[in-house]
Amino acid sequence: EIVGRTLARLRATYCGYYNLGEPFLSPRIREELEILRRHNPGMHILISTNGLALDSPQKQEAALLADHVLFSIDGVCTPMVRRYQRGGDFDRAYHNMKNLVALRNRRGSPKPCISWKYVVFRWNDHPATVRQAIRLARLAGVDCLQFTFARNPLTAVSWRFLLSSFFRSLGEASGWRIRNVWLNRPGFGDPLCHAGSPERTHRAA
Known about the structure:
There is one protein chain. By secondary structure, this protein is an alpha/beta fold. Helix content is 34%, strand content 18%. The protein has 8 helices and 7 strands. The chain has helices at residues 2-9, 29-39, 57-63, 78-81, 90-106, 127-140, 159-163, 165-168; strands spanning 14-17, 44-49, 68-72, 113-120, 144-149, 172-174, 178-182. A 7-stranded mixed β-sheet has the order 1-2-3-4-5-7-6, covered by helices on one side. Helix 1 (2-9) packs parallel to helix 2 (29-39) and helix 2 packs parallel to helix 3. The model is unreliable at 189-205 (pLDDT under 50).
């Protein structure tokens, strides 16, 4: 209530749930978002999640209150994901992401925008792996697959992301660290993506 009222008083236009914690581990996440929405009906809410705890009807309802849900899944299999995310589980996260897309679509709701954030390291940047991620993203029905360059640790840096024509050919750049591959409703939903208009958005090959 305090946060919701404070954001309303400040006329905040954006609220992000990310960094240093998993939002869907909160047993009250739905109530939290309902309070924020009640006080700030027009505010843009982004939730970043590893997808593992978004596994119940209550949490799905909470996610549908957001404008953008960003699933951080850094690879196309569990061993690959666990190189960066301790305790990560690709199959669980992907399943929960796909289910949320299906629920949103069944309801015919325009929101939230649902994106897959793929942090690129030297162990998950091979073109065949990236093409598999694009294929899986299409199958899940997500709106955007966001490839994000990892700046650390230095031993894990993907020089392919920085230097290869392959990555430069994917989607659309948002600064130097991000390439957005829009698969559905190009440019929809999130001011942080800076994806531009549908007319100039590139599709995945």
